[in-house]
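Q: I have 264 residues here and want to know how they pack in 3D. Can you give me a structure?
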Amino acid sequence: MDEISTVEKTKKRTFLGLLLAALLVIIAIIVYLFIIAGNPGAVFSRNLAMLIISFALLFAGLILCGLLFIVLAILGKRRFPGFSWFVGRTLYLYPFVLQIGRFLSIAQDKIQRSFIEVNNQLLCLSPVKTEARKILLLLPHCLQFDGCPVKITHDITNCKRCGRCQIASLLEITASRGVYAQVVTGGTLARRAVEKYRPKVVVAVACERDLSSGVLDTFPLPVFGILNERPMGPCFNTRVDLQKVEQTLDFFLKKENSYREVGY
């Protein structure tokens, strides 16, 4: 399997186009500062203006390199030296990208789905192949049946496997591969799980907002996002495509990896 698709067919160009728009805004600001710097009646000194312009040009150059690296990687199906560093600088613009999208009346969920798609695509180009104990599957608590009295956020094996939700099936998937799994209620517990297991790659199931924030919070740790399904609305008895979870875990597992039972 060379590539995995884990989100709806949202166009990657949505996020990339907005990233380009953010870069153009920065360039427009630089041009404006140049004009001000050349005005004898400028409010602030020419030296200060040139200092700001220099930093802005440096930042714009880094963003441009990051954007080019992303596009070339996607088109050429390969990554380049220094790729992660430049992409990391580009991610600083993510909040700005959301604001531009809002200004253009583009739904935030659509932008976040596009961002997740870009992130997943880049991970597929140079995947981390690792042993099972270095892979962590993070699951949202809303996958659990809403009426279930059992607390599984600290220990997923507390699940009674009644079959009213998909937790039991996910336990079977992870146990058969030797992968650690943790149910979390938010970013704080997710970060604790990452600190506890110290994975080399995270496979996360969540909504658009939580996935995108998780990717940003843990960078450069690879986080592969799988969107949950919400037949009953957000954060309530959600579901996930189990086949996608299996495919993704197998994608990151070493070929020679021997499956083992997970000791939680």
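Q: Anything worth noting?
A: The chain is about 50% helix and 10% strand. The radius of gyration is 21 Å.
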